[in-house]
Amino acid sequence: MKAMILAAGKGERLRPLTLHTPKPLLPVAGQPLIEYHLQALAAGGFDELVINHAWLGEQIVARLGDGSAWGLQIRYSAEEQPLETGGGILRALPLLGDEPFLLVNGDIFSDFPFARLRRPLAGLAHLVLVDNPAHHPAGDFILNEGLARSEGPGQRLTYSGIGVLHPRLFDGCQAGAFKLAPLLREAMREGLVSAEYYAGRWIDVGSPERLAEVEALLVGSAG
Length: 223
Fold this sequence. Notes:
- It comes from Pseudomonas fluvialis.
- InterPro entries: GlmU-like, MurU, NTP_transferase_dom, Nucleotide-diphossugar_trans.
- It holds the Pfam family NTP_transferase.
- Keywords: Nucleotidyltransferase, Transferase.
- By secondary structure, the chain is an alpha/beta fold.
- It has one domain: Spore Coat Polysaccharide Biosynthesis Protein SpsA, Chain A (Alpha-Beta Complex).
- It has helices at residues 33-43, 57-64, 84-96, 181-189, 208-222; strands at 3-6, 27-28, 31-32, 48-53, 73-78, 101-105, 108-110, 125-130, 141-144, 147-149, 156-165, 193-197, 202-204.
- Strands 1, 4, 5, 6, 8, 9, 10, 11 and 12 form a 9-stranded mixed sheet that branches. Strands 2-3 form a two-stranded antiparallel ribbon. A two-stranded antiparallel ribbon has the order 7-13.
- Strand 2 (27-28) and strand 3 form a beta hairpin.
- It is globular.
- The relative contact order is 0.19.
């Protein structure tokens, strides 16, 4: 199974830190945020990775290279303008192939074991859901008997930015900027999106305060 890291965002909520450094390369406990993903992917048995980039993307390519330092083979999907989540994935599909692939948002930190997702995909997507953080109390989707739903009974949880997608999810999509969530909701109505709950470490690194939270977590773990 191949993997993709979404790394094309401008990180506007992290300014001024991201004015001259792309968000995935912001240092956390001595190394760029994205490198924690690379280490976790390699540990989980993944060896082929696609990374999309836009804002200051040449810095990402220069830093990570071909991925051999982590035992990975990295290919890049460059975007002249950010295509949002859905558009960025659609553009990268020729590099990902016809089989389901692991998707990871580049601006999260988690100790989720990626190897757990190396299994057959029954529908069009499988999402990892987490408890709602303080900055997103309303959550995103409902987990009900192993399926993710937009509406219905059950507790609403937050999409972690970790999941497995089938390329067929993008059938009929046109090139350009569009979000992933509407495609997921459409597939949910057909019962084609499974999900699981993860109670481990997870932080959406969307602000300087949450970046500092990851730093404190990693420094504390090392100590």
